[in-house]
Specification:
Elements: E1 16-19, H1 35-40, H2 42-48, E2 52-55, H3 83-95, E3 99-104, H4 114-121, E4 133-134, E5 155-158, E6 163-166, H5 181-196, E7 201-204, H6 207-211, H7 225-239, E8 244-247, H8 253-258, E9 270-272, H9 274-286, H10 290-298, E10 307-311, E11 318-319, H11 325-335, E12 342-343, E13 347-348, H12 352-355, H13 360-372, E14 376-380, H14 437-441, H15 447-459, H16 462-466, E15 468-471, E16 479-486, E17 489-496, E18 502-507, E19 516-519, E20 525-527, E21 533-538, E22 543-549
Parallel strand pairs: 1-2, 1-14, 2-3, 3-7, 7-8, 8-9, 9-10, 10-14
Antiparallel strand pairs: 4-6, 5-6, 11-13, 12-13, 15-16, 16-17, 17-22, 18-21, 19-20, 19-22
Helix pairs in contact: 5-7, 9-10, 9-11, 13-15
Bound molecules: 1-deoxynojirimycin.
């Protein structure tokens, strides 16, 4: 059976939506979102067209890294709800055709995790070897620090333990030793547990660090870390044929490709496209898509049933680490000139609308790109209504403000006092008074309705998710145009990166009469000339999606 006719490989054309329960919807008035609140708002996601919900960490945590510091991999943070609430959420989501995936954060634990507490207390602890210890830090202890503004070494001396332990991230997040078979088995059990509760896979945190065995004392006799990833995937697929691993791998393309595994894709099901994302911002800054074109051409094809995860923003800073220093400065100048918008020179702690001066045409063009470029689009909550950031919040928290439901107090997120909220609400031009779900649902011209339309068309257009993609050559420097073909169907898109109108001539078909281009986003149609070319007039930041129809082709909606 053709894969495009089944949902067996559902992730290939999914719409993933990431949210933090804590900041989504509060039902008990304590200022913190909860699982029941998310359940109450599940129809917002269903109406939007979301097919996969990625829950950021909901496990018990001292919350020193927004929940990425976990004290019980099998638990649910009681402030958010119970296992019962979670199972109800998964059931409700399933009823709306939405699968749920969870964050799997097993590179490290919190230093408050009972395993680490036991490990540091005694060399005889059964958990001592679950972490990576040394009597002396290695010479390269300060290479590859992820948070250089907060940490000076990857190794921290622990008084109680009398040794140094490895931590890739904050010092309160000791790394687990995945070369230890007991740790490997425990991670497998964690995966099995959540699958049994009904989830459809995981977003896997920090995959290269998880597999990294740099701290090991006996590098000669190490198992291949990719074997471990293969084992994880094999276990996952045995337990649940429909489950996925969506990996956070921010490496150059060639290295990232290795995390998909062999030609059949036996490791990660999806990898985020960090390079494409960074090049897109560079192209937006330059009003010229050349850099994005280069990235899309260089991007390795994933195995047939695997997919790239494409995104515009996520819960971390907009990292620019794969650009050159000059390129990074160009993006800063265009989208975050003020130091308060930058995160220690690494990236931008901003959301897209304020970066673009809330220019609606430009915003729409960016989301049109997201849903038409090859890859599975991943949205971060609030993007669908064009939420802004709160620069008064510390560091990466700027983009983690409460969801804006209405124009009332706290944006309808919670009835608690503002001071009690899990995170401060956005203020200024993009505050809930101006940007909220309730208003945009009622406004046919809203960003919310634009994104709904894009999602609907994306879901019914297999060419976009399954097709072979060709970036088209043409004479108009500000236009990105690509053609995708699948099972006899052809779709062409064009995106104008410039604030000036553009005309573009595209070769979209072979020579022949009666070929037409039917617009998928608006009631327009254009003739393709007998030599197979199509001429399009694009407004500043304009975008078009067109299906190419030959005489006799069945008209598709
Ligand atoms: C990556 C997550 O996206 C980030 O938010 C977190 O701080 C680190 N991993 C550490 O878990």
């Amino acid at each position: 059976m053709r894969l495009t006719e089944t949902a067996d490989v559902w992730w290939k054309n999914a719409v993933v939506y990431c949210l933090d329960i804590e900041t989504f919807f509060d039902t008990d008035g304590d200022g913190r979102g909860d699982i029941r609140g998310l359940s109450q708002r599940i129809d917002h996601l269903a109406e939007l067209g979301v097919t996969c919900l990625w829950l950021m960490p909901f496990y018990p945590t001292p919350d020193r890294d927004d929940g990425y510091d976990i004290t019980d991999f099998y638990g649910v943070d009681p402030r958010l709800g119970t296992h019962g609430d979670l199972v109800e959420l998964i059931t409700l989501a399933k009823d709306r055709g939405i699968r749920v995936i969870a964050d799997l954060v097993v590179n490290h634990t919190s230093d408050q995790h009972p395993w680490f507490q036991s490990a540091r207390a005694s060399r005889q602890s059964p958990y001592r070897d679950w972490y990576v210890w040394r009597d002396q830090p290695p010479e390269n202890a300060s290479e590859g620090i992820v948070f250089p503004d907060q940490e000076t070494s990857l190794w921290q001396y622990d008084e109680q333990a009398g040794q140094y332990y490895l931590h890739r991230f904050y010092k309160h997040q000791p790394d687990l030793d995945i070369t230890n078979p007991e740790v490997r088995d425990e991670i497998i059990r964690v995966i099995g547990f959540w699958l049994q509760l009904g989830i459809s896979g995981f977003r896997v945190d920090a995959v290269p660090f998880l597999l990294d065995t740099d701290g090991a004392l006996d590098p000669e006799h190490l198992p291949d870390p990719h074997d471990y990833l293969r084992d994880l995937r094999a276990f996952l697929s045995r337990r649940s044929g429909q489950a996925v691993l969506l990996g956070e791998v921010n490496l150059p393309y060639k290295e990232t490709r290795q995390f998909f595994g062999d030609e059949d894709g036996d490791e990660l099901t999806m990898c985020f496209d960090f390079i494409g994302m960074q090049k897109m911002y560079l192209s937006l800054a330059q009003q010229d898509p050349a850099e994005l074109v280069k990235a899309i051409r260089e991007r390795p094809a994933p195995p047939e049933e695997a997919q790239w995860g494409t995104f515009v923003r996520n819960h971390d800073e907009l990292t620019l680490d794969k650009l050159t220093e000059d390129e990074k400065q160009e993006v800063f100048a265009a989208f975050g000139p003020d130091e308060s918008m930058q995160l220690y020179g690494r990236g931008l702690r901003r959301r897209l609308p304020p970066m673009l001066g809330n220019d609606q045409a430009r915003l729409r063009m960016v989301y049109s790109l997201l849903f038409s470029l090859p890859g599975t689009p991943v949205l971060f909550y609030g993007e669908e209504i064009g939420m802004g950031e709160n620069l008064a919040a510390e560091g990466r928290n700027a983009v983690r403000s409460p969801m804006q439901w209405t124009n009332s107090v706290n944006g309808g997120f919670s009835t608690a006092d503002a001071a009690e909220l899990a995170a401060p609400v956005v203020t200024g031009d993009l505050s809930p008074e101006h940007v909220n779900v309730a208003a945009q649902r009622r406004d046919p011209d809203s960003l919310l309705n634009w994104i709904k339309l894009l999602i609907q068309r994306y879901r019914e257009t297999p060419e976009l998710s399954w097709g072979d993609c060709t970036v088209l050559e043409h004479e108009s420097p500000s236009v990105f145009a690509h053609l995708t073909e699948c099972e006899g169907g052809t779709v062409v898109t064009a995106h104008n990166f410039s604030d000036q109108p553009a005309t573009v001539t595209l070769a979209v078909a072979g020579a022949g009469v009666g070929v037409r281009a039917v617009d998928l986003l608006q009631p327009l149609e254009a003739d393709v000339t007998e030599d197979g070319t199509l001429q399009l007039e694009l407004e500043p930041y304009g975008c078009r999606w067109l299906r190419i129809l030959h005489p006799g082709d069945r008209y598709i909606l």
